[in-house]
Write a structure and sequence with these properties.
single chain, mainly alpha, Arc Repressor Mutant, subunit A, 13 helices, Regulatory_RecX, cytoplasm, Regulatory protein RecX, RecX_HTH_2nd, WH-like_DNA-bd_sf
């Protein structure tokens, strides 16, 4: 195969054209190593070596560009290279080179991810562990990195998260608020022992007026929603709905008695 044209591209890359109308993008190092100047000929063995090295160089440059925007895990880079058409052998070689250059490291990634989440998010350790697993990081690395999320840090973050949750659900019954805060902390990945400590520390007291307002708001929604039902059935629906929301039986009955008096047409 004879080189018929050499065209310089950006970032020290060259496009080589051969007499069989094949094109190949190569680095400057390969240009020098294979003496890719116009008129020079390559035998089949040299061509195969050049093609293999050019593919490796291209994959390495693509991977470097991919990880230049943010930290990536080994799995993420492998998926990226696979999407670009590189086989497993090529992926392995490129990943090894990136590891040698210390620009890809799952342990470093896990620690950086945890520091960021502890500082900027409300995720608990279990949720963080799940996210890292999804990114292909093995359990041993994750467990070592989780030392950054000690019990005190988890408790402090869980308390902040619980306070935020409480503000969002202030219109619920006292019992339902506590249930939702507990459930919210569980869903965010906090340990049960930490949640119990936080719930004790949070100490949300029931406010009589706030509880009454919440009951009336929830009660009116259900009362109006079931307006077409027979009166007895309507009262039953309201009782069931409000009780399931954590309101006290005597408060529910008081609300229903009031509505029975007010709703004179149905009485």
């Amino acid at each position: 195969m004879k080189v018929t044209k050499v065209k310089k591209q950006k970032k020290e890359t060259y496009t080589i054209e051969f007499d069989n109308q094949m094109f190949l993008d190569v680095s400057e190092d390969l240009l020098i190593e294979f003496r890719l100047i116009k008129g020079n000929e390559l035998d089949q063995a040299e061509w195969e070596r050049l093609r293999h090295k050019a593919s490796y160089d291209r994959g390495l440059q693509l991977a470097l560009a991919y990880i230049s925007y943010q930290l990536r895990t080994v799995q993420e880079v492998n998926h990226f290279l696979q999407e670009k058409g590189f086989n497993r052998e090529q992926q392995k070689k490129i990943i090894q080179r990136l590891a040698d250059l210390r620009v890809i490291d799952d342990a470093f990634y896990a620690e950086s991810y945890i520091r960021t989440q502890v500082s900027l998010s409300d995720k608990g350790p279990k949720q963080i562990q799940q996210k890292l697993k999804q990114k292909g990081i093995n359990d041993e690395i994750i467990q070592k990195a989780l030392h950054l999320f000690d019990e005190q840090s988890e408790r402090e973050l869980a308390l902040k998260t619980a306070i935020k949750l409480n503000k969002k659900i202030h219109h619920k019954s006292h019992r339902e608020r506590l249930q939702k805060i507990r459930l919210g902390l569980l869903q965010k990945g906090y340990q049960s022992s930490i949640i119990e400590q936080v719930m004790e520390q949070l100490a949300i007291e029931a406010d009589e007026q706030e509880e009454k307002n919440a009951l009336e708001k929830a009660g009116m929604l259900v009362w109006n929603r079931n307006s077409r039902l027979p009166f007895t059935k309507r009262k039953q629906k309201v009782k069931q709905a409000l009780y399931s929301k954590g309101f006290a039986s005597d408060a529910i009955q008081e609300f229903i008695d009031k509505e029975c008096i007010d709703d004179t047409e149905e009485i």
